[in-house]
Automatic annotation (TrEMBL):
Residues 1-89, 458-478 are annotated as: Disordered. Gene3D superfamilies: 3.30.70.330. GO terms for biological process: DNA repair; mRNA splicing, via spliceosome. It comes from Diabrotica balteata. This is 17S U2 SnRNP complex component HTATSF1. Component of the 17S U2 SnRNP complex, a ribonucleoprotein complex that contains small nuclear RNA (snRNA) U2 and a number of specific proteins. Within the 17S U2 SnRNP complex, interacts (via UHM region) directly with SF3B1. Component of a complex which is at least composed of HTATSF1/Tat-SF1, the P-TEFb complex components CDK9 and CCNT1, RNA polymerase II, SUPT5H, and NCL/nucleolin. Interacts with GTF2F2/RAP30 and POLR2A. Interacts with TCERG1/CA150. Interacts with (poly-ADP-ribosylated) RPA1; promoting HTATSF1 recruitment to DNA damage sites. The lineage of its organism: Eukaryota, Metazoa, Ecdysozoa, Arthropoda, Hexapoda. The keyword NADP does not apply.
Length: 478
């Protein structure tokens, strides 16, 4: 086999050397030699695999990988016709040998690792206008969508043709194309829509969701029960809701029409839906005053025609927030105050006649000085949490928040009747109600901000002058 191989190469090279310029580059000769070597290697390996390896054809049929050269074709034409496989059907794409089945048109590539022919895949990846493109085995192109992170088919004439072949034919000739309406009519329509008012939908009967229905219906009650007893009974399982306007509990004992005689049934509205479940477990079948009462979820049914005028008005957003705060306050658990506990406002000391508000128009920085003086003086008797100067109040008010009521009581005699900047001070414990903050007009606010900016600028200028003086002094000393 080796001798035949080398002889075959020399013969082919001989014919090629006749047409080559002696001074031609040797790399062309090497390329031709390598090509002949690859073809002969393929022929040799294919001949060796006649009995062991087969070429797949379709799903079940196989083609024997037998390759014949030009001389063999003339002598063994019968064998070639039987297998339908010869070297004419093999070509190369780079270093890859590709066999084309003449009967089916299917292509196979030679797998060097498995040492056998495998069906060539037509799938490929590439770029079109900086976009990832994937072509499947059927030739359908897909484009990569970066935003959706998914492949989407390219909808063109080829794609529509394949789609119609697989899923049915669509006669485009029968599709009616709507004519575009004139722009004038469109504008008239939009104007008409803008001018028209939407009609309010007529009110209809409501259906209350069970997950939000906190109403329970109680039957077989004693006829001598009153509202207070009924409330006490129902509050065994939860807090009963109050009406936000009247403040009364939302319970009802039904009476005989036209009389004050009780029928023995009633309605109760809880705040929490959990109270409904608890009442069904605890109060249903409960013996009350010798009678076994029945508790169930309330169901509202319409009797007669629905009258929208009798429907209660929707609550405003403000009323809903108020009701929500009231309910949250009911469920807010806090320990009860001990006897002798004092209120928070007893920690606050109010000082009056401390200043004249006009002085702050001249020098805004006096506010900080007053705060600092009061903090230093009051800290002798305890923790000073906050000092606030009401600079717009005509009585010259300052507020001092101490740590405890006892500390505040010690500060009062310290400041009450004391003279400060030729003004006699008054000090007392805050009553917890009086508000000392004075509302400012827009012009007053603007003036105050301007004064404050001027104060900051003066402070910065003074600081810079001080630094310059110290710098000059240090330079003169050195």
């Amino acid at each position: 086999m080796t001798e035949e191989k080398s002889g075959h190469i020399d013969t082919n090279l001989e014919s090629s050397f006749k047409n080559i310029d002696p001074e031609a580059r040797t790399d062309e000769i090497e390329a031709e030699s390598n090509k002949q070597l690859r073809e002969n290697d393929l022929k040799e390996s294919s001949q060796e695999k006649i009995n062991s390896g087969n070429v797949e054809k379709g799903n079940n049929e196989k083609v024997s990988p037998k390759i014949t050269n030009d001389t063999q074709q003339t002598t063994d034409s019968s064998e070639t016709s039987e297998t339908g496989y010869d070297s004419k059907n093999v070509h190369y794409e780079g270093d890859v040998a590709i066999y084309t089945d003449p009967s089916s048109g299917s292509q196979y590539t030679w797998d060097k690792e498995k040492n056998e022919w495998v069906l060539k895949s037509n799938e490929s990846y590439g770029f079109e206008d900086d976009t990832h493109v994937y072509t499947d085995a059927e030739g359908v192109k897909y484009f990569w969508d970066k935003e959706k992170s998914a492949w989407f088919p390219k909808v063109d004439e080829d794609f529509m043709a394949r789609y119609q072949m697989n899923y049915g034919f669509v006669d485009n000739a029968k599709i009616e194309v709507k004519k575009e309406e004139p722009v004038v009519k469109l504008e008239e329509k939009t104007k008409k829509v803008k001018g028209e008012k939407r009609k309010a939908s007529e009110p209809t009967w409501f259906q209350l969701d069970e997950t939000q229905n906190t109403n329970v219906y109680v039957s077989n009650l004693p006829t001598d029960i009153n509202e207070e007893e009924f409330i006490d009974l129902m509050q065994k399982c939860g807090l009963v809701m109050r009406d936000p306007h009247s403040g009364k509990f939302r319970i009802k004992l039904y009476r005989e029409p036209g009389t004050d005689l009780l029928k023995g049934d009633g309605l109760c509205t809880y705040i929490k839906i959990e109270s409904v479940d608890l009442s069904l477990q605890v109060l249903d079948g409960y013996n009350y005053k010798g009678q076994t009462i029945k508790v169930e979820r309330a169901k509202f049914q319409m009797k007669g025609d629905f009258d929208p005028s009798l429907k209660p008005k929707m609550k405003k957003k403000k009323d809903k927030l108020k009701l929500k705060k009231q309910q949250e306050k009911l469920f807010d658990w806090r320990p009860e105050k001990k006897l002798g506990d004092r209120a928070k406002h007893e920690r606050v000391v109010i000082v009056k006649n401390l200043f004249d508000p006009k002085i702050f128009d001249v020098d805004v920085g006096l506010i900080l000085e007053f705060q600092q003086d009061l903090r230093e003086e009051c800290s002798k008797y305890g923790e000073v949490r906050k000092v606030q100067i009401y600079d717009r109040h005509p009585e010259g008010v300052a507020q001092i928040n101490m740590g405890t009521p006892e500390e505040a009581e010690q500060v009062v005699p310290l400041l009450n009747g004391r003279w400060f900047m030729k003004r006699q001070l008054t000090a007392e414990i805050w009553d917890g109600k009086t508000k000392y903050k004075v509302a400012e007009t827009d012009s007053e606010i603007s003036q105050r901000l301007d004064n404050w900016d001027k104060f900051l600028e003066d402070e910065e200028a003074n600081k810079k002058n001080t630094e310059d003086k110290e710098k000059v002094k240090s330079e003169s000393n050195s």
